[in-house]
Amino acid sequence: MDQSTAKPSIREGNERAILAAAEAVFAEQGFGGATMAAIAARAGVPKPNVHYYFPTKAGLYRAVVEQVLTAWLDAAHAFDTSADPVEALTTYIEAKMDLAREMPLGSRIWASEILRGAPVIQDFLDTTLTQWVRSREKVVKRWIAEGRLKPIEPKVLFYMIWATTQHYANAAHEIATLEKGGGLDDEAFQRAKTQVVEIILGGVTK
Amino acid sequence: MDQSTAKPSIREGNERAILAAAEAVFAEQGFGGATMAAIAARAGVPKPNVHYYFPTKAGLYRAVVEQVLTAWLDAAHAFDTSADPVEALTTYIEAKMDLAREMPLGSRIWASEILRGAPVIQDFLDTTLTQWVRSREKVVKRWIAEGRLKPIEPKVLFYMIWATTQHYANAAHEIATLEKGGGLDDEAFQRAKTQVVEIILGGVTK
DNA sequence: GTCTATAATCGGATAGAC
DNA sequence: GTCTATCCGATTATAGAC
Asked: Contact, B27 vs B109, CB < 8 A?
């Protein structure tokens, strides 16, 4: 789109490779445990090259976290406030389960960031997430007033959904150990998804 | 109990202070992000003193994790396999909620360790935890066969309980942000505990 | 835009005086 | 048992040739 018309862009390819490598290393080692050398090795580029594209480790980390944020927001839109509670919650829980399945690294980075007290995404918690919760709380309370849900604190429900769905990414290793080492295959995961929806909906609908 | 009869023991006091400081720093920074200097400063002792009592950072981390393990096992016993499902699950969920409330640092270290793939506690996952899950799975399946619970995969239930209860420790900062900055007071936490029990039991009992 | 060589700093660990 | 001074490997970051 810019001057350099048809350039498949070396820059773009390298940035992508570095971001992908960084996502994996930050997910495995945490921010403090990750090293630029490990990221460079995984991306298949020399170490100074990483610094060329991302001058500081903190900046690279921010870039990775912001990618994860985008995915989180997409999943958040699955909570359709116009739908009825069963449909809205089913769609949302399934979207969050799929996100944990398809982006386990991002989910783990997110969890790690929250564990540390959200040093990088605090402003997101203060603004976008707070607004998301406020608006969805109203919807849940309306459903309760209409007698379609049990009288629960909406946040208790949200926390249960977030924690349970992300557990399938965050604790994938623990799960694999308990499943005789193999982890969940697609079929087992789909069953788990269905049952998570059933248990939560069974617990909150009248 | 040994030769040095009535020694209140400088050693004991220092070890306790260092372990407490290490728990806090590991919980905040993760293993990789924690530094011996930060732990020493928090414990109020010079850095080499930490190495005197705990020669290596990895060893100190193991000592902290083992403390957490003990607490986990105590809570696990709250799952009374002789009781009826409502009573057993209620007691267990409440015990896990109380653990998250009373030992938030330990819960966060546990979560961080699981996130990284359990490098230190893998043998515990392979032995004690696997056995715990196997035996409780049998109990849940019996309850299902007796028609007292819906036909669910027991592990889906366990994961939901673990993830949801520990969320109150792991995401305490996020929760505080969403609760207008104050965090949950005792009353709000007790309400949440009750509702977590109600939703899960409502979702799995017939 | 790439990468070798290197600077500068941090952090785990230790020596040795007290 | 305590702690100052210090070592040294690891790590972030940069300079500068190509």
From this structure: yes
For B2-19, the pLDDT digits (tens) are 444 455 688 999 999 999
Helix axes B186-204, A154-170, angle to 10 degrees: 70
Cα gap A165→B91, rounded to integer Å: 23
B178 touches strand C (CB under 7 A): no
Q: Check whether residue B14 has its CB closer than 7 Å to nucleic acid strand D.
A: yes
How many CA atoms within 13 Å lie on the side-chain side of B22?
Answer: 28
Instruction: Give me the domains of chain A, ranges plus CATH numbers.
Output: 2-55 (1.10.10.60), 64-204 (1.10.357.10)
Instruction: Answer whether any strand D atom is within 7 A of the Cβ of B47.
Output: yes
Query: Are A192 and B164 a contacting pair at CB < 8 A?
Result: no
Nucleotides of C under 7 A from a protein CB: 1-5, 10-16
DSSP string, B124-191: HIIIIIHHHHHHHHHHHHHHHHTTSB-S--HHHHHHHHHHHHHHHHHTHHHHHHHTTTS---HHHHHH
Round to a whole number and report the distance in Å from the CA of A45 to the C1' of C2: 10
Residue A117: list chain B partners with CB under 8 A: 28, 173
Per-residue pLDDT of chain A (206 residues; tens, 9 = 90+): 444 445 568 899 999 999 999 999 999 999 999 999 999 999 999 999 999 999 999 999 999 999 999 999 999 999 999 989 999 999 999 999 999 999 999 999 999 999 999 999 999 999 999 999 999 999 999 999 999 999 999 999 999 999 999 999 999 999 999 998 789 999 999 999 999 999 999 999 99
Tell whether A101 lies on the interface with B, counting CB pairs under 8 A.
no
Q: Which among A15, A98, A125 is positioned nearest to A64, based on CA atoms?
A: A15
d(CA B68, CA B61): 11
Q: Which two tokens stand for residue A133?
A: 């919760």
Would you state the pLDDT for residue B9?
Answer: 86
- Interfacial B residues in 20-79 facing A (CB < 8 Å): 27-34
- In the chain, the amino acid numbered A143 is W
